[in-house]
Amino acid sequence: MINQLLFVSFLFLTNGVGLFEQYYPLADEIAKSMSLQQKIGQTLQVDITSFNDEQGNTHYEQISQHFLGSILVGGNGCPDGRGNIIASDNCFQATNANWRDVAQRSLKQKVVVNVPGHGETQINLLLGTDAVHGNQHSVGAVLFPHNIGLAASHNVENYIKAAYWTKQSILDCGFNFAFAPTVAVSHNPKWGRFYETQGADPKFVKEIGRAYIKELQEDDGKKIKGVLGSTKHYFGDGATYNGYDEGNCRVENFDVFYNNNIQGYIGALEANTGTIMVSYSAINELPMSISDLINVDLKQQQKFDGFIISDYNAAIKVAYQGLPTTHAKMSIEDAYTKSFNSGMDMQMVDGAVGWYEEVMNNIIGQGRISTERLNDAVKRILAVKLAMNLIDVPETLAKKYNYTQEKKEEKVEKQEVSNDDNDAEYYDALRSAKESLVLLKNKQNLLPINKFKITNVILLGERLWSFKNEFKRVFQDFDNIGAQNGGWTIRWQGFNGNDYWSNDLKVSSKASSILDAIKSRFNSANIYYIQYSDPTNLQLINEQRNNFRNNIINTLDQFNRENTLIINTLAENPYAEFMGDIDCEYCKTQDKQGCIYNNWINQYLPDEQPTTLEINVGDYEKQIINIIRQKDVDIPVVTILFSGRPMIITNPLQVSSAFVAAWWPGTAGGEAVVQSLFGEYLFKSQGKLNTLPVPWMRNMQQISNYPIYGNEVPQIEDPLFEEGFGLETRPQNIQ
């Protein structure tokens, strides 16, 4: 009964009309009063960096010159502190204050439409930004665990809190449109976006979609008070064969495929999601960007009354890319025609607005996209804007349609945030991180450890980074907040290291590495790790490693199983989208047709795409562990894995006394991990907290040629750990 009531209250108003549909008549009159160029402009969302000149100055006037409906911040865009948006590795100026400046400059650019008999109507912008695990484009932000970690908590309240704080931060930046949530069902960990998925239980994914959109958009049945959401990526993006990003779903039984992968969208629709973003992927080689399912399923069957938006340059990919999505290619005119006629209302593009306008004018002039279809797209976009108070409607026109105009301030004001709010956001992120951890091994109930008996903490876990055979630096993953956050952190592919979590940025984000959390509990004289004088000098690194090894040998007598703890940290490099794909067949051919991996995009990754998810304890770390265990073979080793997905962990499991899958837990991840080790947080204290949201495979063979949808939902057979697995810890006398 409760779910039925929620459905009625979310999807329909008392008169049986949807949240956005109630504004269709007014939106339609405005749309029909627009020129063709204004209509085309409203169907565009453009990367704002495309408005930059050669000197890096952003020409905001191009927004109104092209009558744009929306702009977005690309994955690597950030403000320069002088009012411009740049695509750069240096994003230290990406503060909320500087984002507000960008928003203010953008919102001054309005589209003016003269509605006959009523006068000027001013249409404002939708300002879009990614929000994969918080407002991650903003430096100093508190960031939550990625979705796969939140899914391990099985706690919808964590999603609601993530949506709430994301909304608050985006509003503080002056933006109003978030590309979230992803509601993909998890399938193959070889996919580079696996960490964006929500686990293998479609019922839970439906609940997440509903709860997140409800909190993010905060609608009252008439207006959206919060941030416009974009539920993505419609649909089946998490189910591509072999986990190829932008790949193809192999489907023999469509009903089984549909019922398992659509649930997140149903939940989001129940909460009045304003937009749905369409996937790059294909079903049986028909790209979703040109699939009739957009019209037939979403708009007709599901009665979706918001607007549909493409992913970045989606029609261009349909036209020119081919594999890994499909073997077919087509002209750009055909791609845009098919995309619009399938139900796509807004196209997300990187730039080249003039070229897009020319293509659209030609298509429309040839009658390939009807006036009725174009008007419908614009009407839907304007209806969403009316629900967001983004259109200044003349009084007589508003009165005609009984539209309540809520005047917004011209200037984007800073949101007042108290110290209590900052603390609350941090503790919500910390709770989410703790509840996302999964204990996979706990030999002889090692955890929780009595920290009052520990006098020696040895921290291990390093990676040597090279690019194009040139050594760059060493990263210590026990002190690597970037590695705790993974991709979509500050920039598209993320960062290793602590550069963006130092000094004032560390204070505002309250970010903590494992080292930070250990230092807050132990005297520095009792913490053993290498303190490199120059992490970029390989010769010095090797010398200091030798010195550390000798120091361990010289102090062996003081180590034993009662007073010593070795914490060994393993981590994936940060990555996003196709750069995280593993073992793609197209990357193994000589011409690499269909391989979109390119490590110039992510220089932390190797030249050639990896072919395995195996992760091992490093040779140096093995040396230190073996030396210490020569003294006492039972000195405990606790391994922490920071990753965006299950990995092949045969080797580290054997070495470890306890093993924690920490996923990518966000800025509070270090503190969360250490609390769990010492019993300040107990694993699996209630319900399904701290349990796997997906099965954990044993080897790569189990996820090869997978998934294929037949008459049953595909499953990984005989996994190392079943979905729902997670060990618990119980309180001990640790005083």
From TrEMBL:
One of its GO terms (molecular function) is beta-glucosidase activity. Its EC number is 3.2.1.21. InterPro entries: Cellulose_Degrad_GH3, Glyco_hydro_3_C, Glyco_hydro_3_N. Residues 437-728 form the Glycoside hydrolase family 3 C-terminal domain. The keyword Signal applies. It is an enzyme of class 3 (hydrolase). Belongs to the glycosyl hydrolase 3 family. Keywords: Glycosidase, Hydrolase, Signal. Residues 1-16 form the signal peptide. It catalyses: Hydrolysis of terminal, non-reducing beta-D-glucosyl residues with release of beta-D-glucose. This is beta-glucosidase. It holds the Pfam family Glyco_hydro_3_C. The keyword Amino-acid biosynthesis does not apply. Residues 36-383 form the Glycoside hydrolase family 3 N-terminal domain. One of its GO terms (biological process) is glucan catabolic process.
